[in-house]
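User: For a benchmark we're assembling, each entry needs the component sequences followed by a predicted structure for the full assembly. Here are entry 17's components. Please fill in the structure.
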Amino acid sequence: MTDWTRKTAAELADALAAGETTSVELTQACLDRIAAVDGAVHAFLHVDAEGALTQARESDARRAAGSPASPLDGVPIAVKDVLATSGLPTTCGSRILEGWIPPYDATVVARLKAAGLPILGKTNMDEFAMGSSTEHSAYGATHNPWDLDRIPGGSGGGSAAAVAAFEAPLALGTDTGGSIRQPGALTGTVGVKPTYGGVSRYGLVALANSLDQVGPVTRTVLDSALLHEIIGGHDPMDSTSIDQPLPSLVAAARRGASGDLTGVRIGVVKELGGEGYRAGVLARFHESVDLLVAAGAEVVEVSCPNFVHALAAYYLILPAEASSNLAKFDAMRYGLRVLPEGIDNPSAEDVMRATRDAGFGDEVKRRIILGTYALSSGYYDAYYGQAQKVRTLISRDFEAAFEKADVLVSPTAPTTAFRLGEKVDDPIAMYLNDLATIPANLAGVPGISVPSGLADEDGLPAGFQILAPALADDRVYRVGAALEAILREKWGGHLLDQAPELASDDLVETTTGASR
Amino acid sequence: MPEITRDEVAHLADLARIDLDDAELDRLAPQLAVILESVASISGVAGDDIPPTSHAIPLTNVFREDVNTPCLTAEQALSGAPAQEQQRFSVPRILGDEQ
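Assistant: Structure for entry 17:
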C-alpha cells in the first residue's frame, strides 16, 4: 500500500490526475498521520477532519466530472492560525482570540477553497507571530520533528513542523521577519516569502502591515511554486497588492530542476555570515555555493553595509506597527473579555486593561510597550523616524547588490534548532535568529529557504537563503530548484528521508513509511 | 539615548491599556531596557538627507471599483462579540462617575 503522506504535492496531483488515488484517500491519510504523531509534535491547534473530508469528497466529484478546479485540486493543506478561516477557529496563538470563529475568509484561504484544496486545520505559531521558536504560543510549543526536545523555529513553527512530520504536503505561512524561512531552515523544509504585495494580506491578522507577507511552506521547491501560483496575484481587497501578473513560477522551478545555472550571477552577502553563525551552518552554506558554481553559476561577493543595522531598525518598526495593530483587541467587539477583580461596575477602560493583561503573553506585552515608546513624542525622531531612514539605506544596499548579481545568497538562520526553553526569557538571543532574514522584509524583496544539509555539530538541518529583486520571485524558484536537485542527487533523496521516524501514538501502520 | 525606567514602563503600559502587576513590571522592565540598549545603535546612522521609507513597494491612489458588494450581516458581525443586545455590541459603561 502506498504511503501517500510521504509524497510531494506535485506527485499527489499527478496521482489524482491519473486516477491512482482520491482526495478522500489522501486527506484521510493526512488525518491518520496527524492523529498518530501530532500528540508529540503539536503542529496543529485545530484539526477539521469533517470539513476536510467534505471538501475532499467535493474534489473527487469534480475530478469524476472531468473538471478539476486547479492542478492541486484535492491535495490537502494546513493553514497558519493567523489567517482568517470562515467557520474554523482563528486564534493567532493568543488567549485573547481563544474560540474566535471569523465570519469571513482571508483572500488566500478563499483562493485555496476555489482551487479545491481541502483544509486540514490550523497550525500553531508564536502569539501574533511574535517569536522565532513557536514557544510564545499561548497553547504550548510545537516540537521539531528532527528532535522533539528542540524548537521548530518560528513564528510559523506549526506549519513547518506539519510539513516536516508528513502531516500535510502543503501549508501556508506568513513571514514578517523570517517566520516562513527560518522554520523552513530549522526543519529541513522549503519556505518562500514572496515579494511584498505579491500575495494578498486581506484576512491576515496583521503583525506589522508594511512587513507581513503570506507564502508557501512545503517540502520541495516545485510544490512551493505550485502553491504560490494559486494564492498569488492582485487582490482589490488589499491596497498594497501589486496589480500585475505573477512571473511564471512553476516554469522557473522546472527549469531550475535541470540543474543548469549557466550565466546566473550569485552574490554572497559579506555581512550575512561569519560572526554569530555556527560553523556547521556555514560549512553547509559554502558547500552549496560551490555546488552552484559547479552548475555554471558565477559567484561574486557583495557588500551591504547597512544590513548590520537591519535588526535594530526592524525591532523599532515592527513594535511600532504591532502596538497600533493590537489596539483593536479592546474586549468590545470580539475576543476575550475579562472583568477586573475588586472593581464594582468597571468602566470599558478598566475591562480593556484587565483583558489585555490576561489575554496577551509576555512577548506581546514587551513589543506593545516598546512600540508605544518608539512612537512617543520626543522619541519618535530618534527611534521610529531613524529606523525608517535606515530602511531606505537597506533598500539602496539591495539595489546596488542586484546590479552585480541576479540573486543574493546567505545562510537562512545563524544556527540550527536550539533546545526548548533555551532562549525563551532572553529576547535579544531570540531576535538574533532572524538576522539574515529581516533585510528582505524591510526592502520587500522575495526570498526562499532551501535545505542545505545537516550541520556537523548536531546533525540538524541548516537552510540556504536565496533573495531576488522585487517582482523577480521566479529567480528564487529557479536557483532554489537547481540547488535542491543537485543536493538530492548527492544525498540520494530528500533531506527529510534522514529524519528520525516519529513514534506513533496509536496507529502503527501509518508511521513507518515502508512503501517509500 | 535615555534609559527606560520601571516607572516609565508602567506609564507606557498604562498608555497601551495593559494592567501590569508588580511582578510583571519587575520582569519586563529590565528586559525592555536591554532591548532598547541594543536598538540604540541606530541613532545617527542615517543623515538628514535620507528620506524615510514606510512601505518597500510604494503605491499611491489605490482604489477599488465603486460597486456594491455583499458585506457581513449583523448576525455575522456580532458572532464574536463578548456580549450583545438588540443587534448591537453591549459594552461596559464608557463614562466615569465624575463625568
